[in-house]
Amino acid sequence: MFRLPSRLRACSSPRRLTLAAGLLLAGCNPFAPAIDDEIVDPNQLLGNPVTVRGFFDRFRASYQLRDSTLYGQLLAPRFQFTYRDFAANADRSWNRDVDATTTYKLFRAARTANLQWTQYLSTSDTAYSDTLVYVERAFSLSIEQRDNTRFDGAGTARLVLVRKNRNDPWRMRSWYDRSEF
Q1: Dihedral angle at the C-alpha atoms of 70, 75, 80, 85, nearest 10 degrees?
Q2: pTM tops 0.90
Q3: How far apart are CA 100 and CA 106, in angstroms?
Q4: pLDDT digits (tens, 9 = 90+) for 146-178
Q5: How far apart are CA 169 and CA 55, in angstroms?
């Protein structure tokens, strides 16, 4: 049986206890948001990665929200990121694990990230099947770090998107990045 501490028993009346218990049981918290009965479809909110357009919407949302978990869902298990190192005049690559770690660190260091997909390039969006698509898009990206350092750049991303069947979401198998930062 629950017993009140002695100093509360001395100053409490049944009326006060009933009022306090009623407030506790009601869970009335004026600072808590109301429960929304309407179910929100994340595909409408973030983009449906079953479509190529929805994939890019979700990609953008992962950057806007700085959500590495959302970003990681876009990567195929054998993902490879490649970028052009202009100083060395060579391509540099890394795998999914390195990309996920790098993106996580980028998002943690950023106060804001703004990714805009600006256009499809003329050779882009070539569907070879329901399970393989080559897409090249131009983009602009600005990142403001917590120390107020700002990076702005633009470039193109040549992506290979794959999926097992037509009802599965698209995943990036590779990303060839040609951007200037």
Answers
A1: -30
A2: no
A3: 10
A4: 999 999 999 999 999 999 999 999 999 999 998
A5: 8
